[in-house]
Amino acid sequence: MSHPRTQLQGEGFASSFAGASSGTLLIVDDDEGVRESLHIVFKNIYHILLAESGQKAIELAKSHPIDAAILDIRMPGMTGIELLARLKQIDQRIEVIMLTAYETIETAREALRLGACDYLSKPYEMSGIREAVANAMVRRAVSREIQGYDRKLVELQKEIHHQQLREELARTHSEIYASILHDINGPLTVIAGFIDLIQKEIVGAEKLGGKELENVKHYVGGISRQTINCMEISRRYLGFLQGKSQTDYTVPVNQVLSDLEELLTVHPAARRNQLVIYSAQQDIIAQINATDLLQILLNLTINALQSSPDAHRVQVQARMLPNVPDFDLMARNMHERCFKPDGVDISEPLLALTVQDNGPGMPGEILDLIFQPYFTTKPAGQGTGLGLSIVKRLITQAGGAIHLYSRPGEGTIFTVYLPIRL
């Protein structure tokens, strides 16, 4: 009983995942003719292992890493169903395709229950067996990618732990270390969201193809980007401790906004609220490190999303201003605050990035404290109080300014002003 499947995304698609076109395929059948014919079909694509019995297959599985297996259901001694269960005990991630000339609903259900990814009837079409194996290898490659990112996360967590244990730096730069943990927590939260989405797509799925496979590929790409983002944050802070300055100022603002939208779609704070992001009408290059700009926007936007437990709207907008605003005039209103580094003149034109929410807003006495390290209006255990102090420091380093307007009952508006490259 063969199952309907999406038209093969092909061996070409499988090769987009590392190892998908060079995996190890185990072929188990007591019929030598079947074994040899399958060997001829796949020998130029995968590394092939042949076994004439279940016991021989188990010996091979214990001594060789196997990505996918083709099992005949009816074999003397140990049936294919029994062998499937044994292989899954050795390595749960082995993708198994069952073959039979004596199909029944019961055996098909049992095979799928034990974790088989496909079930084909003899005589099978060659295109069908090729498709089944290609899809199995893609599933295995996706599993391998996820496992690799899990290892990277463990290594990153160890690196952070080792940094915390360095007593002298921890004593003299305690705020820096707290900032590292705060900034990396954002990408890790996003990574956890992507992993959760991947698990929802693949857990219990009989097959992975079409839209579901494209979704998983997209989620894996998101994990990769956020792993790199974590590394960049670590390097940025280590460079700061060593007195090194960031030199990468080529930042397409609309690309950063696109990255922001992608990240926040899987962030828990965005799920219950309305988030709208408007790109700049013209191409703008900001003179600030790409990771720094993304961290500024993430901190401001997540704070806006968390400003109220009730559903509300958060809007992010980028635009180019031809003239520098009067920062001194902005700071005279009791509901406004403006911070610009002393001795820094922002040239025209400049970039304005606005993060606005219609949440509860803040009274004037809070506005005077909001950029101080460790100050937070959130309940105990729900905030470090470092997000806005990090935003202020990054904007200061970039030679920019930040304006804040907030009024109880009206919401809050943060506007970041940055120099641009003409």
Protein described:
With 422 residues, the protein is an alpha/beta fold. The chain has helices at residues 10-14, 32-42, 54-63, 80-90, 105-113, 126-165, 167-172, 174-202, 210-241, 253-264, 290-305, 327-330, 364-367, 387-397, and strands at residues 24-28, 47-51, 68-72, 95-100, 118-121, 250-252, 274-278, 285-287, 313-321, 336-339, 350-357, 401-407, 411-421. Strands 6, 7, 8, 9, 10, 11, 12 and 13 form an eight-stranded mixed beta sheet that branches. Helix 3 (54-63) packs parallel to helix 4 and helix 10 (253-264) packs across helix 11 (290-305). The protein is elongated. The model is unreliable at 1-21 and 168-172 (pLDDT under 50).
Question: What would a concise description of this structure say?
Answer:
The protein has about 425 residues and is α/β, with parallel strands linked by helices. The protein is built from 14 helices and 13 strands.
Major sheet summary line = 8 strands, mixed
Element order: H for helix, E for strand: HEHEHEHEHEHHHHEHEEHEHEEHHEE
Distance between the termini: 64 Å
Tell me the number of strands: 13
Please tell me the overall pLDDT: 78
Can you tell me the overall shape?
Answer: elongated
Oligomer classification: single chain
pLDDT below 50 for ≥5 consecutive residues: which ranges? 1-21, 168-172
Question: Helix/strand/pairing class, anyone?
Answer: alpha/beta
Helical percent range?
40-55%
Strand content: 15-25%
Q: Give the radius of gyration.
A: 28 Å
User: How many DSSP helices?
Assistant: 14
How is the topology of this model organized?
Layout: H1 10-14, E1 24-28, H2 32-42, E2 47-51, H3 54-63, E3 68-72, H4 80-90, E4 95-100, H5 105-113, E5 118-121, H6 126-165, H7 167-172, H8 174-202, H9 210-241, E6 250-252, H10 253-264, E7 274-278, E8 285-287, H11 290-305, E9 313-321, H12 327-330, E10 336-339, E11 350-357, H13 364-367, H14 387-397, E12 401-407, E13 411-421
Parallel strand pairs: 1-2, 1-3, 3-4, 4-5, 7-9
Antiparallel strand pairs: 6-8, 8-13, 9-11, 10-12, 11-13, 12-13
Helix pairs in contact: 3-4, 6-8, 6-9, 8-9, 10-11, 11-14
